[in-house]
Amino acid sequence: MKKILFLFIFLFALSSLIFFLPKTNAQNTSCDMSNIQNACGGTNGFGSACQDLLNQCSTSINQALQESINATTPLESQLNSLQTQIQGLKSSLISIQNDLTLKKQQINQGYSDIAKKEIILDKAISDYYIKSYYNSPLLALLSAQSATQLTQILAYQRAATNQDKEIITNIALSIQDLEVRSNELQSEQARLTSLESSLDQQSSQLNDIISKAKAYQQTLSTQLSELNSIQQSIIAAKLAGLHIPLTAYAGLGGGCSSDISPYKDPGFSGTKFGFFTYGVPNRVGLNQYGALGRANAGEGYNDILNAYYTNFQISNLGDPNITVSGTNDYGETVNQTWDLETYLQHVYEMPANWPQAALEAQAIAARSYVMAATNNGASSICADQHCQEVKLTGHDNPCDGWCQAVKATAGQVMTSGGSPIKAWFSSTHGGYVHSSADIGWAATSYTKTAQDASSNIGSFSDLQNNAYDKSSPWFYCDWGSRSQYNGTAWLQSSEVADIVNAILLAEKDSSTVNHLYQTDKPNPAGTDTWDASRVRQELQNRGVTPFNSVSNISVSADFGSGSVTSVNVSGDAGSVTINGQDFKNYFDLRAPSNIQIVGPLFNVEQR
């Protein structure tokens, strides 16, 4: 009985919990992927409407996901506990059922015994009435021969009568007890049946709610992943706005906006902070300035190619026609079809006066890339740095170093599994080569992860001294500029303090992120951007002491892989340590003008 009472109490508590569990909310229909593709696709591109919708949807979905997780997470341990209790209670129900079965058996046995006792009861009642008649005191007096005998007869008669009365009473009580127990058994069985049904229903409802909550969260996570993919494209477009030279040829005569040697003064007083990145996107495949360094160190083109690619063979796949269409980075409209080797004569990726080994490695990489990108000439290729830089005027008469490299390697293509590899390359990797998977592209068997230096890199000093691409003018650069500060990317102490405060606020309360964009441009999320003063106040409201000024910044790096692990900041609010990737992401979000950190490995200079 106590067990059944406990089960009723538990079911009431379980019903209450299920009532208060989070319910899934309907998605904002404007965030349907088809709407996003309409806003961001085709001729619309990544315009303001696209960016606004992406930011709004990202915020909306993030908020919905966080609300669902926040509502569900604290209950999950309780729900798991309840599931365990449900299983235990089901076991208890089995025990109670077995108990009731045993009671039923005992009651049935009792009725069977009563049936046998009814014969004794009838005889006892009959004897009782007979003895009551024949055992009267008058008959005993008449039949007794003495007082002593009379006393014995009367005592015997009383004992016999009492025995019959006891038999009759006991049997009657047994019958009454069986009736009571039988009624209780029926009542308990009815309650048990109700409990079993209710428990199964509540358990099913509980499982259904948990499953729906998890499915809802998975849907939101998938949508966020899709949005993130589009946002990465927007980031790439913003990077393109920096006009970073992706190839060695395109960057001739260029350099960093504020080199540290010679130092270019921004013109403001106080401590100046510069955020310098090692290398330029994309850091996969051939490192052109690294090839230059290796060629100068005596390596041949085969050694160079093996330094940047793996699991490939050199094959000759014929000489298909290559169709080029589009506008190159020099304003020329190119709409031409050339045979493969003629096409390569028009490629301008590496200065023609570089060592022959570097040029030959580049020629094979360029030939492999165009074969893979066009499916052996079946489709066309663009004419700018996003594919391969092509000019209408080719390297031909007289035949310069590039022309000689193309002829010397004629027909040679890097292949994997019989197919040409997409042999990516860029001007400067910053002392490291990364696989395609390292930077978020699809994994490939022929790209690799390695240090690109003459000896092991264990510090920034090692990197500066030993990297094969250290001669590149973009090896160690800060990116972006402001005309009011002499065209440099140096930041004031108060500006760095504001960026750090924005990072601390975003980490403290992720719902504030859409207010933390750079203050000198329109807010892409369509809301208000908080200035430095507001950010400081919001931090104080959340119990965090904000920075007014920063006096020192240092970074810790994993020099094995080439990435910053943490950034250490000191100033008037004390010292904080921020995750390296988080620092980069929020820095690019908050930093003024077009100032950005463009890679995983960076350092901070102070002047």
Strand and helix layout:
Blueprint: H1 2-20, H2 33-40, H3 48-134, H4 137-143, H5 147-240, E1 272-278, E2 286-287, H6 288-296, H7 301-308, E3 313-316, E4 321-327, E5 333-339, H8 340-345, H9 356-373, H10 401-408, E6 412-416, E7 419-420, E8 425-426, E9 432-433, E10 450-451, H11 460-466, E11 476-477, E12 491-492, H12 493-508, H13 532-541, E13 550-558, E14 563-571, E15 574-579, H14 580-590, E16 602-606
Parallel strand pairs: 2-8
Antiparallel strand pairs: 1-11, 1-12, 1-16, 3-6, 4-5, 6-7, 9-10, 13-14, 14-15
Helix pairs in contact: 1-3, 1-5, 3-5, 6-9, 7-9, 9-10, 12-13, 12-14
Question: Keyphrases for this structure?
Answer:
607 residues; alpha+beta; four-stranded antiparallel beta sheet; three-stranded antiparallel beta sheet; 51% helix; 12% strand; elongated
Structural description of this entry:
The chain has 607 residues and is α+β, with helices and mostly antiparallel strands. It has three domains: 2-240, no CATH class; 272-278 and 476-606, no CATH class; 286-456, no CATH class. The chain is 51% helix and 12% strand. The chain is built from 14 helices and 16 strands. Strand 4 and strand 5 (333-339) form a beta hairpin. Helix 1 runs antiparallel to helix 3 and helix 12 (493-508) packs across helix 14 (580-590).
